[in-house]
Design brief:
Shape: elongated
Bound molecules: adenosine-5'-triphosphate, magnesium ion
Membrane topology: Peripheral membrane protein
CATH architecture of the largest domain: 3-Layer(aba) Sandwich
Subcellular location: Cell membrane
CATH superfamily of the largest domain: P-loop containing nucleotide triphosphate hydrolases
InterPro entries: AAA+_ATPase, ABC_transporter-like_ATP-bd, ABC_transporter-like_CS, ABC_transporter_ATP-binding, DrrA, DrrA1/2-like_C, P-loop_NTPase
Largest sheet: 6 strands, mixed
GO molecular function, one term: ATP hydrolysis activity
Number of strands: 14
Strand order of the largest sheet: 6-7-8-3-9-10
Pfam families: ABC_tran, DrrA1-3_C
Radius of gyration: 24 Å
Structural class: alpha/beta
CATH topology of the largest domain: Rossmann fold
Helix content: 25-40%
Strand content: 15-25%
Length: about 325
């Protein structure tokens, strides 16, 4: 891929809020996002997601390193970058006192569209985000999902090449979340590159072509949702037993089979075993159980969830300690 194929590039970007050089912020962020894709930037609270979005959208200056968006350097060519991007911040930007219509019309005027064009665009966007009927209502009366969709609409007054969306569905119910996901998906279909930050694994899994996991200001893992799941040790065999007693017998049998490294969910009498050969392991375990008269309720082969990958990469090692230290 050549440089122009990337909508977003960051090379060893550092941003420090504090006085010490390895304090909170970004500590050498390197990433590339191909044009026309949805990229998920995933990380726990304080990982640096919003900081990265602010640097890419030129709201914040980087201390060291290089970053470009839509082919333009964020430091030297900030105005060119701003012409080509949209930003949906972590907190809503729309005015509660105005109606949906008035908000979009106002944003259109801010982008210097003539009134007639601003009105036309507002109408189109309300339609696109399923807000035509709600358009004449005051935003204060909107649900969280409607607000978020209006926020997205407002960032699209002039179709951006690259859209930054910071935690689009935090605090939304599952239905509203689905609606926002659909809206983001349709932007990608229209050719916009989307960088999406989220703490929800499911969100990244559903939407993102590729995911970067951010921790303490740097990327610690990157790949497609599938490759991240495989990198973490492949498939798992989940065995659910009827009683706690059965669960301990099953655990003993698995230990004898040499299927180490399994975890036991005691509340649900469920054992989760990492397996390298899927059906082989399933058959071996099933026949060993049968031989000792043990009948599991359920035996399923599955891929690891992105949750398991995320927890594995972000909470082992020193994450908790540093988090507690910064909160103290
Ligand atoms: N203006 C600021 N001044 C000082 N420290 C800051 C400032 N903004 C952010 N930080 C610190 O920088 C680190 C990264 O913050 P950032 O907001 O980028 O994280 P985040 O990944 O977006 O977190 P969240 O999931 O909570 O939104 C945190 O430790 C935060 O406390
Ligand atoms: Mg944030």
């Amino acid at each position: 891929m050549s440089a122009s194929d990337f909508a977003i590039r960051a090379y060893r970007v550092k941003k420090n809020y504090g006085k010490s050089t390895d304090g909170p912020g970004l500590n050498g962020l390197t990433m590339e996002v191909p044009r026309g894709t949805i990229h998920g930037l995933l990380g726990p609270n304080g990982a640096g997601k919003t900081t990265a979005v602010k640097i890419f959208s030129t709201l914040l200056r980087l201390d060291e390193g290089e970053a470009s968006v839509a082919g333009y350097d964020v430091t030297a060519e900030g105005h060119r970058v701003r012409e080509r991007i949209g930003l949906v911040g972590q907190y809503a930007a729309v005015d509660e006192q105005l109606t949906g219509w008035q908000n979009l019309e106002m944003f259109g005027r801010l982008y210097r569209l003539p009134l007639k064009q601003a009105r036309l665009r507002a109408e189109q966007l309300l339609g696109q985000f399923g807000l035509t009927e709600a358009g004449s209502q005051q935003v204060a009366k909107y649900s969280g999902g409607m607000r978020r969709r209006l926020d997205l609409a407002a960032s699209l007054i002039v179709s951006p090449e690259v859209l930054f969306v910071d935690e689009p569905t935090t605090g939304l119910d599952p239905l509203a979340r689905q609606e926002v996901w659909q809206a983001i998906q349709s932007l990608k279909e229209a050719g916009t590159t989307v960088l999406l930050t989220t703490q929800y694994l499911e969100e990244a899994d559903q939407l993102a072509d590729r995911i970067s996991i951010l921790k303490d200001g740097r990327i610690i893992q990157e790949g497609t949702p599938d490759s991240l799941k495989s990198s973490f040790g492949g498939d798992r065999l989940d065995i659910t037993l009827l009683t706690q007693e059965d669960a301990s017998s099953a655990a003993a049998i698995l230990r004898e089979l040499g299927d180490g490294g399994f975890s036991v969910d005691e509340a649900n009498n469920r054992i989760s075993v990492p397996v390298s050969d899927r059906t082989g392991s399933l058959l071996r375990a099933a026949s060993a159980f049968a031989a000792s008269g043990l009948e599991p309720l359920d035996m399923v082969l599955r891929r690891p969830t992105l949750d398991e990958v995320f927890i594995h990469y972000t909470t082992r090692s020193d994450y908790r300690d540093t988090k507690e230290a910064t909160q103290a």
